[in-house]
Design a protein that fits this description.
The structure is a homodimer of 134-residue chains.
Chain A: E1 7-12, H1 16-26, H2 31-34, H3 36-39, H4 51-64, E2 72-80, E3 90-100, E4 105-114, E5 120-129
Antiparallel strand pairs in A: 1-3, 2-5, 3-4, 4-5
């Protein structure tokens, strides 16, 4: 069982190959993510990671680590506050903020921090059902 | 420019190969999505698509079709109301529900409908900045 206020951390980074693969599987070939010449014309100056790829880390952690296998995703809120880049170390921080033991459902705050700067790039809340953990 | 209340529709389906590829790029190898024997022990009876893969359709549509290139994702809310399966035809329905012309930001309601049953599997709201369209 996972208790209220438990915190789980997960370090990760993405490569440009990951971004290309995500563009293929999602069909999102927005040049903002793929084309350095196009990205140079934007305020970001260089390609940024798809927000949905960043959010896929939430899916990975919920589905495989915390709470892990058996989790069913009910809802995800993701707020993209700062751009994210390839070959950059990030830390996902996951905090249990509510548990409904009757429904086996928890709300888990999800944050992504740029490890070098300490700045938050993404924040949101996942709502997860897991009959063994909540 | 895209007007308030404009509706955009996008039909799609996923194959099991898409699910396997998404598991690879996201790292989410939860057996609920990949292992028919495990999935048979769950209320879903067969493997379901990752919620985050379903949400990647929102990213694709926002980034490449509606509003399209130049879109910057600020926020996504996704509520997974019913399971989704491979080899099943779905329709994404996207409706502009608010526009802030000063910030060039719109809120777009996102729904996924099972074409055969008419039932809604997923709903949420995307918040998108696009300087040319809003």
């Amino acid at each position: 069982m996972i208790a209220l206020h438990t915190v789980h951390r997960h370090r990760f980074s993405f490569t440009q190959d990951d971004v290309i693969l995500f563009a293929q599987v999602s069909g999102d070939n927005n040049p903002l993510h793929l084309d350095p010449a196009f990205a140079a014309t934007t305020p970001f100056k260089r390609p940024i990671i798809h927000g949905a790829l960043a959010s896929s880390i939430f899916s990975k952690v919920m589905g495989t680590e915390f709470p892990g296998f058996g989790s069913v995703y009910l809802k995800q809120v993701s707020e993209y506050k700062r751009p994210m880049f390839v070959d950059t170390e990030y830390e996902g921080v996951f905090t249990v903020i509510s548990i409904d033991p009757n429904k086996h459902v928890a709300e888990i705050k999800c944050e992504i921090i740029d490890v070098a700067t300490g700045k938050k790039t993404t924040e949101g809340v996942a709502t997860i059902m897991n009959k063994e953990e909540f």
